[in-house]
Amino acid sequence: MLLSSAIGGLFYLAAAKTIEYDAGERFMHQAQNAQYNINSRINAYTDVLRSTASFFHAAEQVDRSSFHRYVSGLNIERQFPALDNINYAQYVRHAQRPAFEADLRHKAGDAALGYPEVTTVSPPEARDEYWVLTMIEPLAEFREKIGRDIAYRAPVARALAQGRDSGAMSASGTPIDSVHQPLGAGLALRLPVYRKDLPLNTVEQRRAACIGSVGIGFSVPRLVQAALEQMQVRDARLVLIDSGDSITPRQPVQLFDSKPDSATLAAADQFNVVLPIDFNNRHWNAHFSAPKASWYSRFDSWLPWMAMASGFTGSLLFFLLFHTLSSSRMRAVKMAKEMTRELRNSQARLQQSHHKLRRLAAHSDQIKEQERKRIAREIHDDLGQNLLVLRIDVDLLTSRTRHRHPRLHARALHMLGQIDSSIKSVRHIINDLRPTVLDLGLNAAVEWQIAQFRARSGMVCELIDHDTDIRVDDHCATAFFRVLQESLSNILQHAHASLVRVELRQADGKLSMTINDNGIGVHDAQRNKAGSFGLVGIEERISLLGGTCSITGSPNGGTTVAVSVPTGAGAVPHTITEAIDLTL
Predict the structure, then answer these.
(1) What does residue 254 show for φ and ψ, rounded to 5 degrees?
(2) Residue 180: per-residue pLDDT
(3) CB hemisphere CA count around 76 (13 angstroms)
């Protein structure tokens, strides 16, 4: 009972820890999803900014009417709900200010679009450089910003100068002062615009070509809240902190807090994680927190107690089961030994059957080769000799009737052609059964087979034989010849190759042959296809000789067939007692 109680307590702790871990993983997953959604929205808004800059670069001249049509086509209220406005600030040096203000007075006629009549830059204090807002959409909520120099604040001026000199996006991190939203709720991103057809390779060239800057203003609460609403647990809290950038670090500034009035819980009672967010090279930290109880279901609350009860009851049942099994241990051991003996006997019978099948296959293959050899010899000795005698007689007949009997001479010539065709067919049949060139040795048989393959396929086929006279018995030579024959047949039918290379070598007591091509390669599905026994036959022939066979290939990388058999240091070459030349 004490042991069962201890096991139940361990089950309780394990279940509680597992539930807490799973809940923490779900919290982390949801926080990472929110982080990803925030980054995705920021990327989408930066894409809007880049497209606006591209619009200015592509157009010959952008006026307020075309800018209004462009922003209206973006439909930012529906497609980019956190976006407040898109604007353009013209870059003006102090020496250019009078001409610029005169141009502002000339543009007073844009009142039809809703633009106010602005004649001077505000604030009016003199500065070396001005970045004056001349276009902004939607205009109705931001009319008061037309004509304002956004660089009158030092952090904004520094960010604008950095963007102008680098050609990259810039963000000062300074909240936008607007009467339409709380202070600190809006931030801006800006991208410089340069004059067309001017070089931009150096800082001086970019400064000389800069004509202004396009920017977007967006609401941080709307941007973050949309991502936070996708979390499954509504009690989650997100605090967004801006720590500045690597060039101008500053004290952390809180940009957003989803639950500013929520009570602070102990660290042990809530999940916490801090994830980074990249806002145009500014370091934002998203602090996610949520009470642990919010991530537990009702089943999770009961599961530790259920685990404790299961552990207590299961340990008692295990003791009873162990007691029952221990009493029948001898019977189980005896049964296992009997099953093991039967299994070993079955394996021995299976192995014996496998050996018999292999010997039967070897015997069948040997008989088939002998029968082929016998039939080829009989065809050669009987039918070949008869055809040869018949050809001699017909040839004599054609010679004697050449001048005296023209019609009979023509018939005799026709018969002579038929006999030659029959002799050629007999030669092909004999070579298909068993090429007599095998009696001249493996080197001659391989050379003859490669010559036949070249003539039949038109492929380039190279033979590398290292100028050695290979001396093996007839059984080994026949096996290697059949391997070459089957490999070349497969190449011709399936490989779609243009080059075949055959290497034949006898060295160090081994006879090896390698056949490779530059075709489409061989796949496992092709090797294991039902009804396909060519490659299996190659492997079995070499295995019966006690050798090794390797068939490798890769898609569009060709196929390589490599076989090797031991020949023995004292191997006696097969004595050639008869050589038949079927030239007729």
Answers:
(1) -80, 125
(2) 60
(3) 24
Give the three-class secondary structure for 434: coil
Query: Which residue positions in the chain have pLDDT lower than 50?
Result: 569-584
Between vectors from CA 159 to CA 153 and to CA 161, what angle results, nearest 5°?
100
Contact 450, 461 (CB under 8 A): yes
User: Could you report the per-residue pLDDT of 359-391, keeping only the tens digit for each?
Assistant: 777 677 778 777 877 887 778 777 778 888 888
In angstroms, rounded to a whole number, what is the distance separating the alpha carbons of residues 253 and 215? Answer: 22
Kindly write down the DSSP assignment for every residue of 104-159, as one continuous string.
Answer: HHHGGGGGGGT-----S-BS-S--SEEEEEEEEES-TTSGGGTTBBGGGSHHHHHH
Tally of CB atoms within 10 A around 177? 12
Residues in the chain: 584
* E strand or H helix at 100: helix 97-106
CB 450 within 8 A of CB 463: yes
Cβ atoms of residues 186 and 218 within 8 Å: yes
pLDDT for position 579: 31
Is the Cβ–Cβ distance between 164 and 206 less than 8 Å? yes
- Going by C-alpha positions, the residue among 284, 230, 290 that lies closest to residue 259 is 290
Token reading at 479: 């096996």
Backbone angles phi, psi at 579, to 5 degrees: -125, 125
Radius of gyration of the chain (CA): 46
- pLDDT (tens digit, 9 = 90+) per residue, 401-440? 887 888 888 888 888 888 888 888 887 787 777 677 777 8
Name the DSSP class of 493. I
Residue 221 phi/psi, 5-degree rounding, is -60, -45
* Residue 132: per-residue pLDDT: 93
Check: CB of residue 463 under 8 Å from CB of residue 505.
no
